Amino acid sequence: MSRIALVLTLWLAAAALAACGSGGSATTTYRSSLSASNGEELEHDADRSAEGVDGLSVCPLLPTRTVEKVVGVSGLRAERNDSLDLSICRYARGAVNVRILLDGAADATRRYYNQLSEAQQKFNPIPDLRPHDVRHVGDDSTYGGTGAFWTRGRAQLVAFSADRIARVTVHVPAQSDARRKAEAARLAKLIFARAPAERDGS
């Protein structure tokens, strides 16, 4: 074999080995093109800032007489418990308990959707704890398709509107579930109407 032929043969062999090595490297350095994010983007989740509830306390927004009229019970006493992002007012007399929580912390859309999804996943097999959609109370255009849900066993309605979550519990022993739900829905609509989240910055 001539010297030129020998050099050519060795060069071709080296090139072949390099190609094989390159193929192995491509396999070991493969990276998935899938997104690394585990979060689901929510269509209506554009605003993640905290609206807060500063100056929007539930007790003065819903005076005792207003709550008494809605639930049909007199003699209730209001107890206030407020913080920066939460305002809670409890109206009680004996076994009667009405509790309204207004949540203005950040990321309300996602947190409401997560609460609804978790309730559906965990409690659908349990009739008393199964969440039931309630329309025309909160923002029904939010992700999940309903702006409020009711839990019979807790006598509680959770509703979302304008970057805030309202959690309303109505326990009046003599009342039916349907009446409690209707009263909780009425109170949620009142608190949303009287404590709008949208501010003009003035």
Automatic annotation (TrEMBL):
Among its keywords, does the record have Signal? yes
Alphabetical keyword list: Signal
- Signal peptide per UniProt: 1-18
Q: Which domain of life is it from?
A: Bacteria
- Name of the featured protein: DUF3558 domain-containing protein
Origin species, per record, is Capillimicrobium parvum
